[in-house]
UniProtKB/TrEMBL annotation:
Pfam families: Amidohydro_1. Its EC number is 3.5.2.3. This is Dihydroorotase. It is an enzyme of class 3 (hydrolase). Its cofactor is Zn(2+). Keywords: Hydrolase, Metal-binding, Pyrimidine biosynthesis, Zinc. It comes from Aliidiomarina minuta. Residues 11-302 form the Amidohydrolase-related domain.
Length: 350
């Protein structure tokens, strides 16, 4: 088999940034994906429907004319978010849900939630109105080891949130541990998870052995190999609770290769191929389409895409650098080889 034709995939977790960067980030993602959940961690954060619709327009203006792309906007949940904000979001088709960032957990999360216990009313409204909650699941207390932060967040908060709001659609984003896999599998059908390419392809050795590799540094941080293996099994299991979310998160080369480097992997230039790489290595290419193109849409209640895209078996190298708005970015997997390649003729006319 030298070509693989699958339903056009969607990216259920994406950072496009803003301003002049949109020309590059939107082009890269819209080349492969039909829809994407656009994360709201801008400065200032995207906290209202008005801000989200304005941001959406800036994104749409950057979509190359040969591609169709539908950004699904996530709003930034803060301690000030009200039930009225939830109602406004529920009434706006372009908004997909609210993103919970614990304050201080990751890039541009300073405006995030400081006290999860105060969210009960807002979460009840979300459950009632069918508004999904997207979660960056890590505690931020300095006494909790960075490798334990996801597990502690699940134990401390998510178990209770799901028990109190079993109808709330909850997506645990960019899962990194076997604990997260087990949590999601143990919940009812309203709880799902996205999995990134880096957490499938790598473990924490890939950040630290033989020298520090800042381009493999993202949050939640890569974990032990046993967790990587659990994520791989979840991704190829055919369980519809696990689906594609790249968490492609560009930071310029100088901000990554820095004494205090930023967290985030820019995977968009080779996103689908990175997933194809690991599914192929696991002998599970037949499971890629469900994971990349079906399960996310099914979970969120969107129609599956109707058009197809093609991957070809062709060895190629991810570029060492890409330039966006005169800044250099080092893509995830830069200079490394991939076995499958997205066909260049995947455009609207397919
Ligand atoms: N994943 C990351 O390491 N970084 C993301 C934020 C996030 O998704 O947590 C970013 O916006 O840079
Ligand atoms: Zn995150
Ligand atoms: Zn992210």
């Amino acid at each position: 088999m030298d070509t693989l034709s699958i339903t056009r995939p969607d990216d259920w977790h994406l950072h496009l940034r803003d301003g002049p960067l949109l020309a590059g980030t939107v082009a890269a993602s819209s080349r492969q994906f039909g829809r994407a959940v656009v994360m709201p961690n801008l400065v200032p954060p995207v906290t209202s429907v008005e801000l989200a619709l304005a941001y959406r327009q800036r994104i749409m203006a950057a979509v190359p004319e040969e591609y169709a792309f539908q950004p699904l906007m996530a709003l930034y949940l803060t301690q000030q978010t009200t039930v009225a904000d939830i109602r406004a979001a529920a009434a706006e088709e372009a908004v997909i849900g609210f993103k919970l960032y614990p304050a201080g957990a990751t890039t541009n999360s300073a405006s995030g939630v400081t006290d999860v216990s105060q969210l009960t009313e807002v979460l009840s409204a979300m459950a009632d109105l069918g508004v999904p909650l997207l979660v960056h699941g890590e505690v931020t207390e300095p006494d909790i080891d960075i490798f334990d932060r996801e597990q502690v967040f699940i134990d401390r908060y998510l178990v209770d949130i799901h028990a109190q709001h079993p109808r709330l659609k909850l997506i645990l984003e960019h899962i990194t541990t076997k604990n997260a896999v087990d949590f999601v599998m143990g919940c009812n059908e309203n709880v799902a998870a996205t999995i990134t390419p880096q957490h499938l392809l790598m473990n924490r050795n890939d950040i630290l052995v033989g020298g520090i590799r800042p381009h493999n540094y993202c949050l939640p941080i890569l974990k032990r190999r046993q967790h990587q293996l659990a994520l791989q099994q979840a991704a190829i299991s055919g369980n519809p609770k696990f689906f594609l979310g790249t968490d492609s998160a560009p930071h310029s080369q100088d901000k990554k290769e820095n004494a205090c480097g930023c967290a985030g992997c820019y995977s968009a230039p080779a996103a689908l191929e990175l997933y194809a790489q690991i599914f192929n290595e696991l002998g599970a290419l037949d499971k890629l389409e469900d994971f990349a193109s079906h399960f996310g849409a099914d979970f969120y209640g969107y129609p599956r895409a109707t058009e197809k895209v093609t991957l070809r078996r062709e060895s190629w190298q991810v570029p060492e650098k890409v330039s966006i708005a005169k800044q250099d970015f080092v893509p995830y997997w830069a200079g490394e080889t991939l076995a499958w390649r997205f066909a260049a003729d995947n455009t609207l006319s397919d």
